[in-house]
């Protein structure tokens, strides 16, 4: 079991990511202080570190600099969306990859698997790398979707949403749960992102023989992926 150290001072996001990664088969330890990452690197006690850049006391860039003086442990950076300066700085200092916040737990898990494979370590979640729901096949590790034997052209967000529904195929999934698992944060009032992206996925899947959508909605509650 791969041991992940997740460093972030956003308690709500940390809890969501930790719960998802544990379900994926990782042993996850969390902390709010970058010095814990430096200690873990020095002691070689974790397989990979997920490190937020914007933190009090010591920011992620400084933490990464100190880590790289001690160890080559894989490090994935969490960056502010669109902040190219932090992203480039992190990669130049030896970060293995980065994910912009707010991040999808599914995308984070996929990035972790890819980094661990490149590092020559067996990645967690191998047994769940392929998700089958009727004619839909998802490969979370590579973020590739197949529909009726053909590759389905999805955006990253669309893949994350469809993955959440596919993992609970045939069951109603609340919008709140979809938001937490796909976007890594709770649903806020008047937030229509889920509806907009679901509409796009519906178009790409087409209609069933009965003329209905493969993704059914229950007004005010959530969505359900049909498999028959």
Automatic annotation (TrEMBL):
Keywords: Cytoplasm, DNA-binding, Phosphoprotein, Transcription, Transcription regulation, Two-component regulatory system. GO terms for molecular function: phosphorelay response regulator activity; transcription cis-regulatory region binding. The keyword Phosphoprotein applies. InterPro entries: CheY-like_superfamily, OmpR/PhoB-type_DNA-bd, Sig_transdc_resp-reg_receiver, WalR-like, WH-like_DNA-bd_sf. CDD domains: trans_reg_C (cd00383). The modification 4-aspartylphosphate is found at residue 52. Its main location: cytoplasm. It is found in: Cytoplasm. The lineage of its organism: Bacteria, Pseudomonadati, Pseudomonadota, Alphaproteobacteria, Hyphomicrobiales. Residues 128-227 bind DNA. Residues 3-116 form the Response regulatory domain. GO terms for biological process: regulation of DNA-templated transcription. GO terms for cellular component: cytosol; protein-DNA complex. It comes from the Bacteria. This is DNA-binding response regulator. Residues 128-227 form the OmpR/PhoB-type domain.
């Amino acid at each position: 079991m791969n041991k992940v150290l997740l460093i972030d001072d956003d308690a709500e996001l940390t809890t969501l990511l930790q719960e998802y990664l544990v379900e994926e088969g990782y042993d996850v330890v969390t902390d709010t202080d970058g010095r814990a990452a430096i200690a873990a690197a020095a002691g070689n006690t974790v397989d990979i570190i997920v490190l937020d850049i914007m933190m009090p006391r010591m920011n992620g860039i400084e933490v990464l600099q100190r880590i790289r003086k001690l160890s080559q442990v894989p490090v994935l950076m969490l960056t502010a969306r669109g902040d190219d300066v932090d992203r480039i700085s992190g990669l130049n200092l030896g970060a293995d990859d980065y994910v912009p916040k707010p991040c999808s737990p599914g995308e984070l898990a996929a990035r972790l698997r890819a980094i661990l494979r490149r590092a020559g370590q067996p990645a967690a979640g191998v047994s769940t790398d392929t998700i089958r729901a009727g004619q839909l096949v998802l490969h979370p590790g590579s973020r590739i979707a197949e529909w009726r034997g053909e590759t389905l052209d999805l955006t990253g967000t669309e893949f994350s949403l469809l993955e959440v529904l596919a993992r609970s195929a045939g069951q109603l999934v609340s919008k709140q749960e979809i938001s937490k698992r796909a976007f890594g944060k709770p649903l806020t009032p008047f937030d229509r992102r889920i509806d907009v992206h679901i509409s796009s996925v519906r178009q790409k899947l087409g209609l069933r023989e009965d003329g209905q959508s493969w993704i059914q909605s229950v007004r005010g509650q959530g969505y359900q992926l049909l498999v028959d």
